[in-house]
């Protein structure tokens, strides 16, 4: 009636016939293809549940269950994960664990309660004098003393402090 021609195959306001408007969906743009309505997700969004009724429900930049792509969960081991600009990161490590290598892909990989090279914190190494260190419950101890030395006072802070050999000079 208006004298305006429409392409029923591609016009999202006249899709398949005059006046058939393709619906707007959350985080999506309506499209008409071959006379049928559809949608294209806006940049950074996806239809991960494949339910057209709720549009493109997943924000790939912030979704912990679909971080950067549908189904890519951000759940690093021994940590609470977060999705920022489509990349998984660590919000916090679980108690007793640390992200000592700074790589969020393996989570908080270090057991700070039992690792001699990271005891209590990532930067605390158990290195007793004249011996090999141990870590128990996040505290440094002496695992073994070097030959000829002993930990006679049982004080991990000064390591294997006592020479066990006498000099006969």
> How much strand?
25-35%
- Beta strands, count: 12
Q: What structural class is derived from the secondary structure elements? A: mainly beta
What is the averaged pLDDT score? 93
Biggest pleated sheet: 2 strands, antiparallel
Give the topology:
Layout: E1 28-33, E2 36-41, E3 45-46, E4 58-59, E5 79-84, E6 87-93, E7 97-98, E8 110-111, E9 131-136, E10 139-145, E11 149-150, E12 162-163
Antiparallel strand pairs: 1-2, 3-4, 5-6, 7-8, 9-10, 11-12
Give structural notes.
The protein has no helices and twelve strands. The chain is mainly β. The mean pLDDT is 93. It has strands at residues 28-33, 36-41, 45-46, 58-59, 79-84, 87-93, 97-98, 110-111, 131-136, 139-145, 149-150, 162-163. A two-stranded antiparallel sheet has the order 1-2. The termini are far apart. A hairpin with a 2-residue loop joins strand 5 and strand 6. The protein is rod-shaped.
